Amino acid sequence: MSMNEKVRLVSIRDVLEVESSWGDSSLLDLHCPVCGHEYNHPLDPIRIDGEDSYKAGWPGRGDLLLIPVEGECGHLWELCIGFHKGQTAIFVRVSAS
Asked: Is the pTM of this model over 0.90?
């Protein structure tokens, strides 16, 4: 997603499935935030420097680590970790279009 593209933020809670298929209750399944599909593939992570002034494309003023995710359902979305001065937020970002 480009910096100018309209995006929608989604709570990480909305894409995690507690009933994990991994056989270990400490591992959670990650689902597509658009349709709920459970088969997704992470792409190469990207770190964006927020320059301590909200320039990384998230509501916080620090850096943003984003992992693009491509679902077998065809949707493309991003798993995001924003951080600033020791505080860390995790969320999902999808295109609003």
From this structure: no
